[in-house]
Specification:
The protein has about 270 residues and is an all-alpha fold. The protein is built from 10 helices and 2 strands, in the order H-H-H-H-H-E-E-H-H-H-H-H. The chain has a two-stranded parallel ribbon. Helix 3 runs antiparallel to helix 4 (about 50-70), helix 6 (about 125-155) runs antiparallel to helix 7 and helix 7 (about 160-185) runs antiparallel to helix 8. The longest helix has 29 residues, at about 125-155.
Length: about 270
């Protein structure tokens, strides 16, 4: 990635009232980002800079955000495609008791229903809250997916146009999946409600829930990282894996394979690891 170009785009976006010459320079930066797609705006900016400024600024902001996510232009289409596939898989599992919103929304084939746990109301409040939080995330994903489908259907759509929505969808999907892992894998401990030390145990349990959630989020975001890992980031990833092992949490086989490929040591466990 050309970091000098990224820095120049940043500098242009900081200009509150660029001169005509600066607008032409911005249009030239835009042409460097995508010569085929941005030729029309560039030509307009050369003739009528002030009229072209909103388009130059909007498209440069779009390319700048993509670059700050660590993506090159050729990688955007792959990122978008992978994200849509993951999101449609998530949307196909409808949370129990919920119907898809919006009669005009594109239909995602329903493959099944994600059922609420039978012991849901025996779970601690922190774990029960995951179900409601993820139900709201699922609805928001449906709305963003609909917006993306409308955008894709428009003439002249390019993957860079939809990358911001895909970025939002990927983050929501990662958070939803991480929280469902916590919800599904939680084991009810019969002694939490004992009279003598229930308060201390509940406080310790709450701390563990937060620790587990933070560790899973670190792993998910590290595996989605598009920029090269550093020694510091790999150590942070290793610490997250060690935390899950210490707290007797499972790591899915596919996740373990990705971690191993990065040189992360995944401790063996008899359970599904």
């Amino acid at each position: 990635m050309d970091h000098i170009l990224t820095a120049k785009i940043h500098n242009f976006l900081q200009l509150a009232k660029p001169t005509e010459e600066q607008i032409r320079e911005g249009a030239t930066l835009l042409l460097q980002c995508n010569p085929n797609r941005e030729r029309g705006i560039y030509n307009t900016a050369m003739r009528r800079p002030a009229a072209a400024l909103p388009w130059v600024r909007a498209d440069l902001k779009k390319y700048y955000d993509i670059r700050m996510r660590g993506l090159t232009t050729p990688e955007v289409e792959k990122f978008n495609s992978e994200t849509v596939k993951r999101v449609e898989q998530t949307l196909s599992q409808v949370p129990s008791g919920m119907a898809q919103e919006g009669g005009d929304a594109p239909v995602v084939p329903v493959l099944g229903t994600r059922g609420i746990r039978e012991d849901h109301y025996r779970l601690p409040p922190e774990i029960q809250a995951i179900w409601d939080r993820n139900a709201e995330r699922w609805k928001k994903m449906g709305r963003l997916h609909f917006q993306l489908a409308q955008m894709i259907a428009k003439p002249g759509y390019a993957p860079c146009d939809g990358n911001e929505l895909c970025f939002q969808l990927r983050k929501i999907d990662d958070d939803l999946r991480n929280d469902y892992d916590i919800y599904d894998s939680y084991v009810v401990k019969a002694d939490i409600d004992t009279a003598s030390d229930s308060s201390d145990k509940l406080e310790a349990f709450t701390d563990n829930v937060r620790t587990i959630q933070n560790a899973r989020t670190t792993i998910s975001r590290s595996l989605s990282r598009k920029t090269p890992h550093t020694e510091t980031s790999l150590q942070k990833l290793q610490d997250a894996v060690n935390t899950l092992f210490t707290l007797k949490q499972n790591i899915k086989a596919e996740t373990a394979e990705k971690l191993t490929a990065l040189g992360i040591s995944v401790p063996n466990r008899d359970a599904d690891a």
